[in-house]
Amino acid sequence: MNEIISKVIPIILLIFFGYVIQYKELLKQSTVNEIKKLVINAFLPCVLFITFINMKFKKDYFLIIVIIFILLLVFYFIGAILNKISFISHPLTPFITTGFCFGLLGIPLYETVFGAENLEKISVLGVGHELFIWIVFFNILRIKFKNEKFSLDIIKGIIKSPIILSIIFGITFNIIGGTVWFHNNMFLKGIYTTMKYLANLATPLILIIIGFGLKLKKKYMKQSIKFILIRMLVIFTVGYTFKYLFIDSIIPADDLFNYAYFTFLILPFPFSLPIFVGEYSTKEITELSNNAVVLNTIVSITIYIIFVFLI
């Protein structure tokens, strides 16, 4: 119990520290946005590259990647179907039943509690997720709210994504035996060490950023709560059905993987959702999406902390 408490405390304190920074106005929102951009484009890719290059990659993992991608598609289509129900219908409904804040919250939460040495358990779920987010999720959102058609620029944006590139390079070097090069070659070892330093900054900065963004507006609370209830009902029902029918027959019984899967499903909407919605939609829908993300984040972290104590 003492060990669990010691691992949960940093999550709470770092998020609280971020909230204090916001409350005391020690940093501007624009500054935090720049830090977030740095985390997404530099620190987080380092975390993923190091994880995937050191992962004991199994053939079964490729099946898991495909299954997770399909699962997220199913989540989206269920949201689209639910959107036809009058009291549920809203432009955001199909997008609130799928997609997770994997990199910016899933990795730090799991790493803080279960250690960096076990990150592969959740990272393998993240590959299919990131492919879905960049290939499907944001492009459908853009097409829906901006009436934009699928184009070559969209494909270029996917290919250029630092997160996607870090996963591709990490898996590629792993498969061709390049892990040894990064541990034995003097030059590559220096690069690897530098990436580890940057990766170590990711988790504390992400949790501080989360704390900084904890702002809720009363006028959007009712709809935000409705979104979260719909999301959790769909994701946990369908998510564990998929696990029972498909994933459990591929991945042998493993507590750490089970914890990783729960961590994955409990994650809130992608933090970038309000940013993309704000670019393509109205101010009201943007503020609602931001409110829903913040409330979902608070609920997710609270449930996760309770979960950690229970296990």
From TrEMBL:
Keyword Glycoprotein in record: no
Mode of membrane association: Multi-pass membrane protein
Protein name in the entry: AEC family transporter
Keyword set, alphabetical order: Cell membrane, Membrane, Transmembrane, Transmembrane helix, Transport
UniProt xrefs under InterPro entries: Mem_transp_PIN-like (IPR004776)
Subcellular location: Membrane
Source organism of the structure: Clostridium aestuarii
Keyword Magnesium (UniProt): no
Spans through the membrane: 6-26, 38-55, 61-80, 92-110, 122-141, 162-182, 197-216, 228-247, 259-280, 292-310
